[in-house]
């Protein structure tokens, strides 16, 4: 059912035009990739502070308060460009194993941020001046770094067609993981 | 004149190894992308500050000092991985306009970062001046050009 909706989505005129465009799609994807520098870059610096690996004399509240707004700007750009890229070829991305892993990792990263901000970060006034933040904060920083690094890598790997449903025969595990619909 | 150099690069065993391997190029390129992320962060923390925004309660000099090892590390990682990627497709790069834009802008960006920008940031206090803003803007413009041209290598002939 999801598949037939996505097939319809991919057949809409704007989707087709975007995928077949000479410059629009490359510019869109370039925006997505270059915005990594802003989004992941500032997030990394925030996470490194949480680990106590950089700017350890800067209060954590200031790093999160003054750097994260830029991370948020980057996040908006990444989401909008990412959704548009998905829209350009919905079925291919939906059935791409790397894309599926990336989505799971995005959820993990989001949950990690949510737990951090609702949890130990609420008490940042107590520990924010310390060079080395408490264990929960360090774990949040580490999980964030690993998650976003894997998100970047899986995102890049989406372009490879090694496990594409359209390139049968594929091993059974690929067909299962990618949700390929095999014609009898 | 440079073509023989590029042909030699293209024929190296290292270049061939990356080119012929199924997974080496993706792995090297992924590391290149991760380096890009760290480089972006290390640059922006200081460039935003030079522009007068971001971590305004810290002096520019302090932030520049903190970011320096990450800047150096990221540049090194990107240099090594970039060179390996280049070896695997040197001839393609030779005939690629985006490659030339990148390879000509990169030394300018590096030179600027480690001379003018380093000096201005190293002496930077709490206030952003016209000079710090210009330096920050130039830094962002140069590195953005390097990154954008780099991405465009894959999209052009």
Order of helices and strands of chain B: HHHHHHH
Which secondary-structure class do the elements of chain B indicate? mainly alpha
Q: What kind of assembly state do the chains in view correspond to?
A: heterodimer
Radius of gyration of chain B: 18 Å
Helix content of chain B: over 70%
The radius of gyration computed from the alpha-carbon positions of chain A, rounded to a whole number of angstroms, is 20 Å
Say how many strands of chain A there are. Answer: 0
Outline of the structure:
The complex is a heterodimer of chains A (184) and B (157). With 184 residues, chain A is an all-alpha fold.
List its traits:
heterodimer, A: 184 residues, mainly alpha, 9 helices, B: 157 residues, 81% helix, elongated
Describe how the helices and strands are arranged.
The complex is a heterodimer of chains A (184) and B (157).
Chain A: H1 2-11, H2 13-20, H3 24-51, H4 60-88, H5 90-94, H6 97-118, H7 124-127, H8 135-157, H9 172-178
Chain B: H1 3-10, H2 13-20, H3 24-50, H4 60-88, H5 90-94, H6 97-122, H7 130-153
Describe what you observe in this structure:
The complex is a heterodimer of chains A (184) and B (157). With 184 residues, chain A is an all-alpha fold. Chain A has one domain. Chain A has 9 helices and no strands. In chain A, helix 3 runs antiparallel to helix 8. Chain A is elongated and about 60 Å long. Chain B is mainly alpha-helical. Chain B has one domain. In chain B, 81% of the residues lie in helices and 0% in strands. The model of chain B has no long low-confidence stretch (mean pLDDT 96). Chain B is built from 7 helices and no strands. The chains are: A mainly alpha (184), B mainly alpha (157). At the A-B interface, helix 3, helix 4 and helix 8 of A face helix 3, helix 4 and helix 7 of B.
């Amino acid at each position: 059912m999801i598949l037939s909706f996505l097939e319809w989505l991919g057949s809409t005129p704007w989707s087709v035009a975007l995928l077949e465009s000479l410059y629009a799609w490359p510019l869109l994807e370039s925006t997505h990739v270059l915005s990594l520098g802003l989004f992941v870059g500032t997030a990394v610096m925030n996470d490194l502070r949480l680990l106590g690996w950089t700017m350890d004399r800067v209060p954590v509240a200031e790093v999160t308060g003054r750097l994260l707004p830029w991370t948020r700007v980057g996040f908006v750009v990444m989401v909008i460009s990412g959704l548009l890229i998905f829209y350009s070829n919905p079925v291919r991305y939906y059935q791409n194993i790397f894309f599926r892993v990336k989505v799971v990792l995005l959820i993990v990263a989001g949950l990690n941020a949510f737990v951090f901000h609702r949890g130990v970060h609420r008490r940042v006034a107590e520990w924010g001046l310390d060079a080395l933040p408490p264990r929960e904060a360090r774990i949040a920083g580490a999980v964030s770094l690993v998650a976003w690094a894997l998100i970047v890598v899986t995102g890049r790997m989406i372009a490879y067609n090694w496990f594409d449903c359209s390139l049968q025969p594929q091993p059974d595990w690929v067909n299962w993981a990618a949700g390929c619909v095999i014609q009898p | 004149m440079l073509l023989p150099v590029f042909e030699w690069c293209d024929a190296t065993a290292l270049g061939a190894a990356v080119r012929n391997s199924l997974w080496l190029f993706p792995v090297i390129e992924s590391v290149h992308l991760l380096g890009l992320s760290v480089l972006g962060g290390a640059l922006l923390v200081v460039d935003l500050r030079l522009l007068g925004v971001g971590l305004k309660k810290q002096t520019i000099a302090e932030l520049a000092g903190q970011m320096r090892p990450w800047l150096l590390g990221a540049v090194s990682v990107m240099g090594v991985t970039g060179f390996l990627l280049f070896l695997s497709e040197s001839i393609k790069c030779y005939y690629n306009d985006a490659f030339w834009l990148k390879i000509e802008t990169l030394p300018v960006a590096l030179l600027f970062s480690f001379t003018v920008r380093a000096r201005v940031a190293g002496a930077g206090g709490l206030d952003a001046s016209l000079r710090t803003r210009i330096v920050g803007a130039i830094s962002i413009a140069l590195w953005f050009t390097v990154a954008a041209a780099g991405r465009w290598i894959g999209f052009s002939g």
